[in-house]
Structures are given as C-alpha cells and as structure tokens.
Specification:
mainly alpha, 135 residues, Protein FAM183A isoform X2, cytoplasm, cytoskeleton, 5 helices, CFAP144, cell projection
Length: 135
C-alpha cells in the first residue's frame, strides 16, 4: 500500500463550480452580520489617561445627576440600601441593636469594681511587686 501512488484527478469546470457553490453556501450559513456594536462586559476596560495640557480635555463638563446618585448609593452600607437582608450571611448582625437597654445605673446588670481601703492597699502592694496573691 505504501508503494501505491494516488492519481490526481483534475476536476472539470462543472465540478469546480459545484465545490465553490457549496463553499459559498456554507459561509453564508455560518456568517452573521452585526449592525449593533457594544463593549464586551466580560473584558476589562483599560482607560487611557488624558493629556494634562490639552484644552479640550480640561473643559468643565456638567455633572450627571444620575451617575452621582449611583456613586453615592454605592458608597452606602447594605443597611442603608436595603430594607431586608439580601443574602444569608447578611442576616448575622443585621439587627445589631442591643436587646437590653444598656443603662449604666442599673445595678442588676452592671457589676463594677468597688475599691475599699483594704482592696486599695492590696492593689498597691501587688503593683509594687508583692507576690502573695495566692496566699
């Protein structure tokens, strides 16, 4: 089989025309004409910095109220943006107000350190280095 040579057949004009027609129809099936163009949202946009001394780049442009509103809204935290949580992880700490009013005068909840004469004396001794805390 390796010694066999394949004879090349020269196609006639009718056969060549049929091949070109099939190729043309295949191209028409696969091509799509785009008339509306837009930026690819999946591709990062590289901005080019402006020239600092160019007069047309330094013209004052009017502020776009819709854009500024969008930027200011994005700067807010989720509690200012939404009335309820949007994800399950936001549920943790969403209601961060204390359940009990933290009054400092209420003696039932606040147990402050009380210093008497003996506790002041012992605290001073410990600060000076006496090591008999466990006696």
């Amino acid at each position: 089989m390796a010694g066999r040579q394949k004879e090349k057949v020269i196609p006639d004009e009718v056969h060549q025309n049929q091949i070109l027609r099939e190729l043309y129809l295949k191209e028409l099936r696969t091509q799509k004409l785009y008339t509306q163009y837009h930026a690819n949202p999946l591709r990062k946009v590289h901005t080019i910095t402006r020239k600092p001394m160019s007069w047309h780049d330094n013209l004052e442009e009017p502020a776009d109220a819709r854009f500024l509103n969008l930027i200011h809204r994005a700067a807010h935290g989720p509690r200012e943006k939404y009335a309820e949580t949007q994800t399950e992880s936001q549920e943790i700490g969403w209601d961060s107000e204390p359940l009990v009013n933290p009054e400092r005068d209420d003696r039932r909840l606040n147990h402050f350190r009380v210093y008497n004469d003996i506790t002041l004396y012992k605290a001073k001794m410990w600060s000076l280095g006496e090591d008999d805390r466990h006696k």
